[in-house]
Amino acid sequence: MTEEEIEKENATITKAYKELLKVSYTTLTDDDKKLIRKAFEVAVDGHKDQRRKSGEAYIFHPIAVAKIVAQEIGLDATSIAAALLHDVVEDSPDYKIKDIEDLFGKTVATIVDGLTKISSLSKEKDMNVSLQAENIRKMLLTLNDDVRVIIIKIADRLHNMQTMDSMQLDKQEKIASETLYIYAPLAHRIGLYNIKTKLEDLSLKYTEPHVYNDIFNKIKESKEEQDLYIAQFSEVIKNSLDKENLNYTIKGRPKSIFSIRRKMLKQGVSFDEVYDKFAIRIIYESAPSSEKFLAWKIYSIVTDHFRPNPIRLRDWISSPKSTGYEALHITVMGPKGRWVEVQIRSERMNEIAEKGYAAHYKYKQESEKEDNLEDWINRLQEALENPESNAVDFVEQFKLNLYSKEIFVFTPAGELKSLPKGATPLDFAFHIHTEVGMKTRGAKVNGKLVTLNHILQSGDQVDILTSDAVKPNPNWLDYATTARARSKIKSALKEDKKNLAEEGKEILRRKLKQLKITLNEASVNELVSFFKLKTSLDLFYRVGIGTIDNNMLKDYASSRSNALISFIKSKISRKTSVKKEEIEREEITTNYDSLVFGKEEEKLDYKLSSCCNPIPGDDVFGFLTVSEGIKVHKKNCPNALSLQSNYAYRIMVAKWADSSQQEFSAQIVITGIDHIGLVNDITKIISENMHVNMKSISFESEGGLFSGKINVVVKNNTLLKKLLDKLKKINGIDKVTRL
Questions:
Q1: Membrane-spanning regions, if any (predicted)?
Q2: C-beta of residue 161 within 8 angstroms of C-beta of residue 179
Q3: Is 460 one of the catalytic residues?
């Protein structure tokens, strides 16, 4: 770089730093500014020789992350300083955590240390475990040190997502999948709704770019019409609100691209058929004591003018979400017969909804007890610190609890408890206390005895019946849904299994002695192999519970004495299995040779995954399984996010090469208004398509509506799309979708 270019870049860096100070959500004191200035100088020095893939100076990244932390999340000067320093220890040999502590104090050092540990995890190499899931689990362990570690990590991820264009496509897809899988739900749970929305939209941009661009362009085209509609809606209620002397603002908020896409998939509708593409937000000024009263007053005014949908009322003022979110949501029939979601919030509620964590603590009273976020972190910690739990299983379970909708249930004393939707009495018992959960023998809901897998509903009063004689059994894992409950049950079952295995080992030693066999490593390995088990623990446990009895051990002893015969048998069976494997491989190769893998576009053996049933033309990827070779999934497969996030190192780029001679099955679902000759119209269109073969058809009709399923065989996705388009044009047909 020339001196002039260096000077220009330094001026841009200084400008970015000054903007950071201007946009801070909290009021910065002189000491705060000194702290941030010092952090900025250390960051500039630590990253002086670094550049990003885009070519710009690396220092722009920590400044941008600090700006997100300051402006969008609203954290304090300590957090802004930590954000500026978040990569210094990792990237610069000149700075260690001890230096950061000496320069900035213990708190900043703890946060930077947490962020450094998270970053260093991704550089470890272990192909036997899911590194991504292990990273996520270890990252979440930092929640207990300081929740700001996770918040700054989310800000870091947001900026990385915003500047990912210069990365390779496979890296973009991996990072976007991981973001959608864990970071967006985590942002949601901490109450960072704006950031969650941005993360989801950016992830969709890289995982399904054509879908993202299509919806983005359609939103842009309809913006003028949307603004006009919001103005019409607002005009109707403004006079009534003004008469009550309320200070308020009315805003229109478009739904995110990701949420529109989710609605299109969930309801099987097109973009034009999504009725609530935006929400109207009424934000009012209020003293804390009047907030609830004024919210219902505004509700009354809105429903005086527009008829509400009674089943779409959400009162999160009386019972705030566990994220701290408070608002009144109603859906009303607006002008031109369109449903409109109206969100009613005070300025305080709006600030909490916009800023999440920071605003929540700004308004928290010192007299308040432990809040929902702290309570959630403490409960999560118990589940996280179980060293024996599988990382992938844990992350899957944890993710479910992040995005799950909430229900509110009562204890016998009338205390209100929040649980994920779908929770059972067993989840409730472990939510109250681990000891209560462990001793649960039954439950009463609203005074009636129910099963332990009974699904709780909002408003239920739950009474747990306990007994010291009860202990968890394997069935409980089918009854519990929350991470906390399942983790505690698994730990108890493992402990129980270990105790039984200890007894089983002694029983086995005695029984083998009678058969003149010594219990040692060799005989244990032989027994594990003979009974087709995985570990010695499984063997001892089965002896302990009596699943492996005297007769079975005698069979083992006799097979051991006739080793030669068993050796010959194993040789024969091995040859048979090899032949069978060769036949299967040949069959796979001849039937499915239309996919190529990797940059070299190699033809490899593979299987089509049954969970999403891909056909030529679908966007796909290969997944290297442990025992079944390569399995091919669609990119929008329900399992795709989990696989790409947890096992990125097993993902293979795949594309269709030549599928002209292959045929693939697909199932079409049709719904609409029943009329005479409809089935004939459908079958006629299918039979007129030369390259489509109908395998089966079934229809049901009730109350003038029909639904049908058709199984067809097609050569590729293009032919299937043409068929779907033709079927949609039949008179009376409402929806045509491919399963």
A1: none
A2: yes
A3: no
